[in-house]
From TrEMBL:
EC number, as in UniProt: 6.1.1.6
Cellular component GO terms held in the UniProt record: cytoplasm
High-level lineage: Bacteria, Bacillati, Actinomycetota, Actinomycetes, Streptosporangiales
Species for this entry: Nonomuraea solani
Similarity comment text for this entry: Belongs to the class-I aminoacyl-tRNA synthetase family.
Pfam families: tRNA-synt_1f
Record protein name field: Lysine--tRNA ligase
Broad enzyme group: ligase
Keywords: Aminoacyl-tRNA synthetase, ATP-binding, Cytoplasm, Ligase, Nucleotide-binding, Protein biosynthesis
Length: 533
């Protein structure tokens, strides 16, 4: 993708990373990294932490170079609070490592961390994101960082000098290592003494327990975050790792880590773009029903993996964007389908083409797609009208777009069905009337009745194009205009009034799905019955 170097942010970062890797570690696999804490639902903002290095690592692999994407699971972090909806008795676990906290009630997983890791692992597999996962619990408890911990403790005065530049209050007896209590397993501990020669460390815990251990042999504690992160950069040889905007304020882990990594651990700070906020439209409804913020797994229930990948690939990390769980998802899919047509017609701009290719596949192959890409808004309307009845859905899609088997429109059909079921407000659901609204029909004037007769007479052209021409053409015919007449403000007003009348007669509302789709779903005989023709 060298032709995209000036327009595609992924290619530009790949160029930088390859150049830096050749300088730092020639001949070795290039290391990109991410970190996630499974302390709760891993939301769509967190997905940017993984998707950004994934796209860069994938571009490097596309160029034939060896590249590994490390994903550190920060499952040795402390359990900080009991979320809403969880038994308050879980407060007894506050301060324990996430892997030592029981999973939420009813979970099939062994601990809190595994419960929240599992949906993200499944989502990454569906998205084609290949990582080498690292459990920080396993790393720390296996002694993988023992030497680095001893270095950090030995250099604690140097680390403290860096941190003190950003503190409003000075700290006495700074210590960069936090033991987990051997009795209660919590980190409510205070280091009371340390001997640099013997590495003997004494601590006390708020639970009343205390002991003396040899840090050179101790595996039940961890470095504090602002030291842990740069330690890992050096230990893993990370060349590229992004970080959220909150990590770039003065005194943050990214800023402080950049000063610690070289002086203390002999490493170098990665190339690290700051990534911006990912917003959600329709989140309020979702939060109230789900009890949490939307995750990648939630998004993949209503959109295909390539579309979700595209949202992250087409925006530079520093650009914020929103993911739609409301009606905007239909417009999003319209954009996606339009881009697909541009790519097929070789009309896409280089940056558009690069983002599309990164969305539909990776260095290892293509992601599954929908063979027959019927518009999402059409599928949503059809499954709404038919309440998901397979035979009725197939009948309509056959008439609409020549679909012979529902497998042709999957998985998009299933995503649209899930969106209708979970996110379409009840007052916007379509329920076709069982019998004519005789009271409304009796109240209509001569022109309105004439418009309904013209509609009924034109239903013989039973195609989406024919029905579209019909519903827009009835007001034109009544105005004495040709079917291809340009719309004037007066004509548009007449069309809106006609559409509103049809919606009232068919579904009892002023609005609804696109009328041609609705007419095709209802069927000609039933339409004639409901409009009184």
């Amino acid at each position: 993708m060298a032709d995209n170097a000036e327009t595609d942010w992924v290619s530009r970062f790949a160029d930088e990373v390859i150049s830096e890797a050749e300088r730092r570690a020639p001949g070795k696999a290039i290391v990109c990294a991410s970190g996630l804490s499974p302390s709760g639902p891993i939301h769509l903002g967190n997905l940017r932490e993984v998707m950004t290095p994934h796209l860069v690592a994938d571009e490097i692999r596309r160029r034939g170079l060896e590249c590994v994407h490390l994903l550190s699971w920060d499952d040795y972090d402390r359990f900080r609070r009991v979320p809403a909806g969880i038994d308050p008795s879980w407060a007894e676990h506050i301060g324990k490592p996430l892997t030592s906290v029981p999973a939420p009630p009813g979970s099939p997983y062994s601990n809190w961390a595994e419960h929240f890791k599992a949906p993200m692992v499944a989502a990454m597999a569906e998205l084609g994101i290949e990582v080498r996962g690292i459990s920080q619990t396993q790393q720390y408890t296996a002694g993988a960082y023992r030497e680095q911990i001893l270095v950090a403790v030995r250099e604690r005065a140097r680390i403290d000098a860096v941190l003190s530049r950003y503190r409003s209050k000075q700290v006495e007896d700074y210590f960069p290592y936090k033991p987990y209590c051997d009795l209660c397993e919590r980190d409510l501990t205070t280091v009371t003494a340390y001997d640099d020669e013997t590495t003997e460390l004494a601590y006390t815990c708020e639970c009343g327990f205390g002991e003396t251990v040899r840090l050179a042999e101790h595996d039940r504690g961890k470095l504090v975050w602002k030291v842990d992160w740069p330690m890992r950069w050096a230990h893993e040889g990370v060349i590229f790792e992004p970080s959220g905007v909150d990590h770039h304020s003065p005194g943050s882990a990214w800023i402080v880590g950049g000063q610690i990594v070289g002086d203390v651990f002999g490493g170098a700070q990665p190339i690290g773009p700051m990534y911006a906020f990912v917003g959600i439209t329709g989140m309020a409804k979702m939060s109230s029903s789900k009890g949490d913020v939307p995750t990648a797994a939630d998004a993949l229930e209503i959109m295909e993996a390539p579309v979700l990948r595209w949202l992250y690939a087409r925006r530079k990390p520093a650009q914020s964007f929103k993911i739609a769980f409301d009606q905007e998802i239909q417009r999003l899919y319209d954009e996606w389908d339009a881009l697909g047509r541009k790519v097929a017609g070789e009309q896409a701009q280089p940056a558009e083409l690069a983002a599309y290719r990164r969305a539909v596949g990776t260095a290892t192959g293509w992601l599954p797609g929908t063979p027959h890409a019927v518009p999402y808004r059409t599928l949503a309307s059809v499954v709404d009208i038919t309440t998901g009845h397979a035979d009725q859905t197939l009948r309509i899609l056959r008439d609409l777009d020549g679909v012979e088997d529902l497998g042709e429109v999957r998985p998009r059909l299933d995503r649209a069905q899930r969106w209708v079921d979970d996110h379409l407000p009840a007052d916007q659901r379509t329920r076709v009337r069982e019998s004519p609204d005789q009271e409304l029909l009796d109240s209509l004037g001569r022109e309105e009745l004439e418009s309904l007769r013209l509609l009924a007479d034109g239903l013989d052209d039973w195609s989406l194009e024919g029905l579209t021409t019909l519903v827009y053409g009835v007001p034109k015919l009544q105005a004495g205009l040709a079917a291809d007449a340009k719309a004037t403000p007066e004509l548009k007003a007449a069309q809106r009034a006609f559409f509103a009348l049809l919606y009232k007669l068919l579904v009892g509302r002023d609005t609804g799905p696109r009328l041609p789709t609705l007419l095709m779903a209802v069927g000609a005989d039933r339409v004639r019955k409901l409009v009184g023709a």
